[in-house]
Write a structure and sequence with these properties.
Largest sheet: 5 strands, mixed
Structural class: alpha+beta
Shape: elongated
Strand content: 25-35%
Helix content: 40-55%
Distance between the termini: 72 Å
Number of helices: 10
Length: 265
């Protein structure tokens, strides 16, 4: 009987020590997390590619971050209509460079993560919640480059068609096993497909110049997509289709050329 009582006391003491150590570790992580969140909030507003972070705070056991999104480049309605997109969109945050420390602290402190996206035009809000368990799972199984590229293509397509200049419209974005294709409808009253075909070399040179600007500018809105094309090992194809004749002209830029343009080797 004494031995049993002593064993129980030893076990209870061990459990208390473990709980105390865990509590201290969680508390330390929570303090570090609070400091990181306060620093983030103090630096707001922070302008990213197509979004501006306008605030960050901790409410109860959840880190809450507010963004204003440029609705000229992303349709937030898609996130409401497609819950699968919503989770994929939010989980991209966990794969960004520089996010490692933040999400380690979230996991260690037992906190969740909440993102509030507000449209720059409609002012509509879309909210995404990630529990601590969600964060652990995402960190264990990060999205592949292929998944992220699929998402970028689908979200871009949700904004199309879009006029790109007086010559025509950007109508679709497609991919196959080799290339990602930007597809344009050309206004043949402004330029004939014969003229465009004859000027392919000049157009290709101009495209590469524009790509260099997009891939090196900190304000680029297309850089995330273009970098995923590079990482996926795919080529870039520009397809121009006449709006009257249906004739096409295409320009291909290899993955190796894209790497050289981006300065990635």
């Amino acid at each position: 009987m004494r031995k049993t009582k002593k064993t129980r006391m030893t076990l209870l003491l061990s459990l208390m020590i473990i709980a105390l150590m865990t509590g201290c570790a969680n508390n330390e992580s929570r303090i570090k997390l609070q400091k990181l969140v306060d620093d983030l909030d103090n630096h707001c507003p922070i302008k990213y590619d197509i979004a501006t972070c306008v605030g960050a705070r901790i409410i109860d056991d959840e880190m809450v971050v507010n963004y204003v999104y440029d609705e000229n480049f992303i349709n937030l309605d898609v996130l409401e209509q497609r819950p699968d997109f919503t989770k994929r969109f939010g989980s991209m945050l966990f794969n960004e460079s520089g996010s490692e420390e933040l999400f380690k602290l979230l996991i260690a402190s037992g906190c969740g993560y909440k993102v509030i996206y507000k449209g720059s035009i409609t002012k509509k809000e879309t909210v995404i919640h990630f529990s601590n368990e969600d964060i652990i799972e995402i960190r264990k199984h990060p999205q592949s480059v292929s998944d992220l590229l699929d998402w970028q293509i689908e979200i871009t397509k949700s904004m199309l068609p879009k006029q790109f200049d007086e010559l025509g419209d950007f109508v679709s974005l497609e991919q196959d096993s080799i290339s990602v294709s930007f597809i344009y409808s050309i206004n043949e009253e402004k330029v004939s497909m014969k003229q465009l075909q004859a000027a392919k070399d000049e157009v290709a040179t101009e495209l590469k110049t524009e790509l260099k600007e997009e891939l090196t500018s900190p304000k680029s809105t297309s850089k995330p997509l273009l970098m995923l094309v590079i990482k996926a090992g795919k080529n870039l194809r520009y397809v121009y289709k006449g709006n009257k004749t249906g004739k096409t002209a295409s320009i291909d830029i290899s993955n190796q050329e894209l790497k050289e343009i981006a300065g990635v080797y």
